[in-house]
Hints:
4-stranded mixed β-sheet, 11 helices, 42% helix, Epimerase_deHydtase
Amino acid sequence: xxxxxxxxxxxxxxxxxxxxxxxxxxxxxxxxxxxxxxxxxxxxxxxxxxxxxxxxxxxxxxxxxxxxxxxxxxxxxxxxxxxxxxxxxxxxxxxxxxxxxxxxxxxxxxxxxxxxxxxxxxxxxxxxxxxxxxxxxxxxxxxxxxxxxxxxxxxxxxxxxxxxxxxxxxxxxxxxxxxxxxxxxxxxxxxxxxxxxxxxxxxxxxxxxxxxxxxxxxxxxxxxxxxxxxxxxxxxxxxxxxxxxxxxxxxxxxxxxxxxxxxxxxxxxxxxxxxxxxxxxxxxxxxxxxxxx
Length: 293
């Protein structure tokens, strides 16, 4: 389990144990629950004696590197997966799971959006899946879990975006939301899907979404969960576009480039990035865990 100290990684290890499997844990930071402390973007963990591998590490879209951005995302998301899956193939492993992004789902279902061409981060996720399967070969099926917002808690680990969202909804700043929305799921649900994919030797792309929320619904429910319920007002799409254009100008002046291009990001954020029908209330328990202290 590469990335075992993260929110989803911890849940995957727990579900593996619950279902009678043994797991070797790998993470960048040493800890009591980490068997091997190493940087998976640079080193390959020991694979002898294992049946399968899960990759839940890499670089996310919050990273804003120096321009050009793509080499940073390729180095963090593509190269380590190709190296890991190639080594897994050579050691005779029989199953693998890579935790990816739901942007690859929309890249596949809406090619007219040109997501990989416009956004370096999404390009890296598309290349990650391709490179993983190419390195693994025909005898090592690789399931790619396409993940949206993931709510939940594992000890002291929370989603990376939870703290800034909580500070915002509990501040005196206006609570506003643009059009559009996103699918959401829970860390426990992702873990169950990942372990089932390992057991079934799935080689599929698997979108994981339990509930579809507009941004207005999501921010309102987060405010409720923090104990600071208040009205969420509508934010015009034009304001979002102008703000993101300004963000792009600032990045350019700093010599930086975002993994999600601000010039084209409104085309994503203002859409309803939903997965399937969804189940109302499906993430309520995990949402409460995320924001209740």
